[in-house]
Amino acid sequence: MIITIDGPAAAGKGTVSKVLSERYKLSYFDTGMIYRAVGLEMVKNGFDLSDEEKALFVAQNMTFEKMMALSCDKDFRTDIGGQAASKVSSITSVRQALLKMQRDFALFPVFADGTKANGVIYDGRDTGTVICPDADIKFFVTASTEVRAMRRFKEFEAKGIDTTYQKVLDDMISRDKRDAERQTAPMKPADDAVILDTSNMSAEAEIDAVIKIVEEKLKEKK
Ligand code: DC
Fold first, then answer.
1. Going by CA atoms, what residue is nearest to atom 12 of ligand 1?
2. Mutation test residue for ligand 1: of 35, 62, 87, 145, the one with most atoms within 8 Å of CB
3. Could you tell me the CA-to-CA distances from 163 to 74, 77, 82, 170 in Å, in that order?
4. What is the pTM of this model?
């Protein structure tokens, strides 16, 4: 089974992905991580984030192992990693170079310890439209920019990251705009995606709603 969950940052994709992954024994692929890895590697090397040739080189040489190593960097999850990811992800050749790695993950889905999974849950911006257009179930999870910025700000605060709500909000607005307006694979719901607005939902309510939809879809498929 393949489930895709697309949508903007801090909309609640990660929360539902983790629950669905455990419940249905699906391996989880957070596709934003590869763009963060490419973006951060560019920053670390002092490369201009709009330098297509360099970004393509970094993308072509990106591996799962490198991505996991970069994910331990203190800037990986901050706005530095997020903005860098968003910038390199708007380069068409970079997206193409990272396509196979993302699609191939569904061929032999395994958990981190190597055990076999029942399928994959993809989390990203274009997983239902481009990476897995034939996915069994697709979601587009969203929420108002202010709600998402407050959630992200609280996450950063809890991690001790020095920032302000306004900075997080500004970062989110510019990232959403770039992700939604880029030429290749812009962030948008797939035609057959279920759209879920979590602005006024608790995490529990969101999880309940998603599980209900998955159960209904599975019944329909039987
Ligand atoms: O989900 P995230 O915040 O970690 O994603 C970081 C950036 O990566 C996001 O702003 C746009 C890009 N991205 C993308 O273009 N396509 C994806 N499938 C996932 C992320």
1. 86
2. 35
3. 14, 13, 14, 12
4. 0.96
Work out the widest C-alpha separation in the chain, in whole angstroms: 53
CA distance 8 to 172: 9
Q: How confident is the model at residue 222 (pLDDT cuts 50, 70, 90)?
A: confident
pLDDT tens readout for residues 178-221: 999 999 999 999 999 999 999 999 999 999 999 999 999 999 98
Does the beta carbon of 9 sit less than 6 angstroms from any atom of ligand 1?
Answer: yes
User: Is the shortest distance between the CB of 175 and ligand 1 below 6 Å?
Assistant: yes
User: What CATH number is given to the structural domain containing 77?
Assistant: 3.40.50.300
- Give how many domains the chain has, as a whole number: 1
State residue 194 phi and psi, 5-degree precision: -85, 125
> 21: Cβ below 6 Å to ligand 1?
no
Q: How far is the CA of 175 from the centre of ligand 1 (A)?
A: 9
Q: Which domain holds residue 198?
A: 2-221
